[in-house]
Write a structure and sequence with these properties.
Structural class of chain A: mainly alpha
CATH superfamily of one domain in chain A: MetI-like
CATH architecture of the largest domain in chain B: 3-Layer(aba) Sandwich
Number of helices of chain A: 15
Order of helices and strands of chain A: HHHHHHHHHHHHHHH
Helix content of chain B: 25-40%
Organism (chain B): Lacrimispora celerecrescens
Number of strands of chain A: 0
CATH topology of one domain in chain A: MetI-like fold
CATH superfamily of the largest domain in chain B: P-loop containing nucleotide triphosphate hydrolases
Strand order of the largest sheet of chain B: 7-8-9-3-10-11-13-12
Radius of gyration of chain A: 24 Å
Radius of gyration of chain B: 21 Å
Order of helices and strands of chain B: EEEHEEEHEHHHHEHEHEEHHEEH
GO molecular function, one term (chain B): ATP binding
Membrane topology (chain B): Peripheral membrane protein
Distance between the termini of chain B: 35 Å
Number of domains of chain B: 2
Helix content of chain A: over 70%
Family (chain B): Belongs to the ABC transporter superfamily.
Number of strands of chain B: 13
Largest interface: A-B, 22 and 29 residues
CATH topology of the largest domain in chain B: Rossmann fold
Shape of chain A: globular
GO biological process, one term (chain B): peptide transport
Oligomer: heterodimer
Strand content of chain A: under 5%
Amino acid sequence: MAKYIVRRILTAIPMVLLITILCFALMHFAPYNAIDAMTTPKMSPETIELIKAKYGYDKPLFIQYLRWLNGILNGNFGYSIVTKQSIAGDLAVRIPNTIKLVLPAYATAYILAIILGLLAGSHKNKAADKVIDGISSIAIAVPSFWFSMLLIFILGYKLKLLPIVGMHSVGKEASMADFLRHFIMPFITLTFTFLPANVKFVRSSTVTQFSEDYVLVQRAFGASRGEIMFKHVCKNVLLPIITRLGMALQLLVTGAIITETVFGWPGVGPYFIKAIQGMDYPIVMIILVLSSTLVILGNLLSDILYCITDPRIREMG
Amino acid sequence: MEEIKKNDDKILSAQNVHTTFRTHGKSVKAVRGVSFYAGYQEILAVVGESGSGKSVLMKSILGLMPENAEVTADQILFMDKNILEMTPEQQRKMRGKEIAMVFQDPMTALNPLRTIGFHLTEVLKRHRGMDKRTARKEAIAVLEQVGISSPEKRLDQYPHEFSGGMRQRVLIAMALCCRPKLLIADEPTTALDVTIQAQILELLKKLQDETGMSIILITHDLGVVASLSRRIMVMYGGLLMEEGLTEEIFYSPKHPYTRALLQAIPKPQAGDRKRLEPIPGMAPSLIDPPDGCPFAERCKFACEQCEKGIPKYRVYSDTQRAMCIFSAEELDARERKVD
């Protein structure tokens, strides 16, 4: 098992490198570049050359890439073109804010999905299943920005129960109650966003398991519905679900871009959107690299979790 | 002719079993009125091609049919208890304990994420109320009984570490755990290769001798049952076409279908260079089964009369009867004419 895990980690490294190359190249081939963002049409060509030289844009492409990569590896993510602030410093504030929102939402959605999915899957085509599956199908199609607008309109505007923007009220940064009041609406939106796909996944996984031969065999040996559910099906259903945890890793950074933007939550979302609008290339690139690296790490994590939980894979390699 | 009676020499007897599936507004009549019995300590073979209703019949009796299936019968007696009058809970408690079943495909019959030991001890704990440690001991003993070497080590292994033949042994061990009175083996060797088939059949025979349980062996291979069973039931199109002692079926088959089946068995004796005779045509659709004898359209003796209503049984001996409008003598005479 250790051998397998080591091998998976080793294969992940070139993947990450490939992603940095891809991100860098994509940004380079975009119609505008960082120089366009920093210069104005009124500047003389000499000034523009000077700016290019200052930021290393006069060097060959691969040198630019290597310097950029070297920076990332040393934790130097560069500086925002617009605000001149350190990106690493900004992210150090932004990412925890996003995690504060995404983690509880995902955890809630995940647990609810397991309960609802098992319930629906084990009662296939019965009333409980039809209600749960039907609502999930509708919920998958509901855009999160629309849902958050709806919440804002009802809870924030009509009933005036909750603040509609930000993470804290001015002057109440230390108040937990104030944080929670701000937290509720984006939390509900996100939970609602993550929930339906997970419910559907758990449900279909449960339905598949119930149609397996071993369930019939268990029935033939006198196992009750409960025994089949909790001693057999549950474990087999949970296996693919655990691996979904790994896949969700990148959500911790980019899982709430729209919701955060709608609610003005000071996380990665508005930061990313603003960077795109302001052609702030270093920020866009770093966030791209970060989230795609997390996808790879997440996959790795899934594989390791699978390896630990599934005896058939545990034996391999 | 099927008067309901109690019979002390029969472990299982069923009268007029019907099983109908309902899907998408259509109904599939998989079993259409079958009466049969299995005696104490006997091996009864149920033979028929795919879709003849043999598996469905046995699953119906055990209450293992999916919810869209409807099972009716005049009576199903297991050791003088009427299964039809049991609550689902009572039926569940009977399954695995008094009647056990072994299935066709051992590769998928075990939960891949549970150890062999888990499968066995669960059954022991459930039906014999054993605690964990005694159950483990018993499980080791049962594995030994079905011929699995170093059972103690094997107990902690997962199904994927077993070959097909070994998994079938594990399933048979599961079935033996509670010393059932009746074992239903649903094509237990179909998914295995030939040498392993023989081993599994031998094992079943050995276990039957040792424990004295009754076995109902479902198969589509008449050759398999020849040496094993005491009696044979031949099913076709959801009906019981002929039943009789093994010798009666092999040496004096009465029904044209049984005769055709026997002619389709390869006989690799020296000098026998006759071609195998396949039965032409296909099994009838069970969605809209023919009004008459289901075999009529493939039968070389068929006449108009055959398509008008299901024929009555002709009784040839205490043990043999066949569902054909012609008697054996008439068929013999016709056979000579055809040839």
